[in-house]
């Protein structure tokens, strides 16, 4: 438990991604960063921050800049099973602010003023009370709530809290991770890291490696099909680096040349995580599956991405040696 000052009048509910492999985490990166920075920048009232998640979420919260007071681990990973404990912790609150759509189920039965900061409305429960004041960051998300007979408003202030995160990033160098300064370092980005298919990056790096480029790829340790990605890497003779990160990808931004975004869906979550990376001068390339099962099963989808990455590589030619083509 974090021992900072508690303001019981306002309660914040937030979940960050778990780093436990094989666990379907309800936590996401953007809600945690929005909550942390909105409080620090006085864009939302300070209060009692309740972290929803297992023990591994504590280190992730720290890396994302989030200070909390109480952590609750939902039984069986289901937030709904924590409703009784949340009602007890919020019984004296005049306002409860929920930062994850997935946690909106916890607002049931709480008599206080209720807010939902909605960045991924399709992740919300089937029913959200009309008592809940919903704020979105994309008109398409507002339209989604309208289709469900809920009223929502478009918030243009909170996204600004993610525009300058230089002070949040801890000092990190490629050398500390064993990455060649001349390598093209590519990562995979997703608001919920466990949504990533590690095979896609391994396949893409294999195609780029065939052109003779020095490459390093980084995937979150909770990515799906990580073992298959390693098998693919070994089958290619381990001609490029494939690293696994336990830290949030957003905490490693200074080392990347580019990020692949395979889970883009046009929601506030997708737009905000791209905006944050691009403000840190890291280009983000959306990975479109075109209805296919994935990049590893649809090689043609890789073409435009490889062309874009090739442009990035060529733009760095003055500071990097020319690749040797076979």
Q: How would you describe this structure to a colleague?
A:
With 326 residues, the protein is of the alpha/beta class. The protein folds into two domains: 10-162, Rossmann fold; 175-315, 3-Layer(aba) Sandwich (Rossmann fold), CATH 3.40.50.2000. It has helices at residues 29-40, 56-63, 83-89, 139-147, 198-209, 226-235, 268-279, 302-315; strands at 10-15, 48-52, 70-72, 95-98, 113-117, 133-136, 152-154, 184-188, 215-220, 241-245, 258-261, 284-286. The termini are far apart.
Brief overview, please?
With 326 residues, this protein is α/β, with parallel strands linked by helices. The protein contains 8 helices and 12 strands. It starts with 9 loop residues before the first strand and ends in an 11-residue tail after the last helix.
Mean pLDDT comes to 86
**How much strand?**
15-25%
Overall 3D form: elongated
N-to-C order of helices and strands: EHEHEHEEEHEEHEHEEHEH
Order of adjacent strands in the largest pleated sheet: 3-2-1-4-5-6-7
Radius of gyration: 21 Å
DSSP summary, beta strand count: 12
Counting DSSP H or I runs of 4 or more residues, the number of helices is 8
Named CATH architecture of the largest domain: 3-Layer(aba) Sandwich
The tally of domains stands at: 2
Low-pLDDT regions: 1-7, 290-294
Stated plainly, the CATH topology of the largest domain is called Rossmann fold
Which structural class should the secondary elements be placed in? alpha/beta
Q: What would the keywords be for this entry?
A:
single chain, 326 residues, alpha/beta, Rossmann fold, seven-stranded parallel β-sheet, five-stranded parallel β-sheet, 8 helices, disordered N terminus
């Amino acid at each position: 438990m974090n021992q900072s000052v508690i303001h019981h009048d306002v309660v914040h509910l937030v979940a960050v991604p778990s780093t436990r492999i094989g666990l379907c985490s309800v936590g996401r990166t953007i809600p945690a960063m929005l909550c942390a920075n909105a409080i620090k920048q006085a864009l939302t009232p300070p209060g009692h921050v309740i972290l929803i998640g297992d023990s591994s979420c504590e280190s992730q919260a720290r890396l994302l800049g989030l200070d909390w007071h109480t952590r609750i681990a939902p039984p069986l990973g289901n937030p709904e099973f924590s409703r009784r404990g949340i009602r007890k912790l919020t019984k004296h609150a005049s306002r409860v602010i929920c930062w994850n759509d997935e946690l909106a189920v916890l607002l049931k039965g709480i008599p206080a003023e209720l807010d939902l900061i909605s960045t991924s409305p399709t992740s919300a429960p089937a029913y959200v009370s009309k008592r809940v004041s919903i704020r979105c960051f994309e008109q398409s998300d507002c339209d989604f709530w309208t289709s469900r007979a809920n009223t929502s408003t478009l918030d243009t202030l909170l996204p600004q809290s993610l525009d300058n995160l230089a002070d949040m990033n801890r000092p990190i160098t490629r050398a500390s991770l064993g990455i060649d300064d001349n390598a093209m370092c590519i990562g995979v980005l997703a608001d919920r890291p466990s949504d990533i298919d590690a095979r896609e990056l391994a396949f893409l790096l294999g195609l780029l490696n065939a052109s003779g480029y020095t490459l390093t790829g980084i995937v979150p340790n909770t990515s799906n099909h990580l073992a298959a990605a390693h098998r693919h890497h070994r089958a290619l003779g381990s001609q490029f680096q494939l690293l696994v990160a336990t830290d949030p990808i957003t905490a490693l931004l200074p080392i990347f040349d580019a990020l692949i975004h395979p889970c883009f869906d046009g929601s506030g979550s997708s737009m905000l995580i791209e905006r944050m990376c691009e403000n840190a001068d890291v280009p983000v390339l959306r990975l479109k599956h075109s209805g296919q099962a994935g990049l590893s099963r649809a090689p043609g989808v890789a073409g435009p991405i490889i062309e874009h990455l090739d442009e990035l590589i060529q733009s760095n030619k003055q500071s990097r040696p020319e690749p040797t083509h076979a």
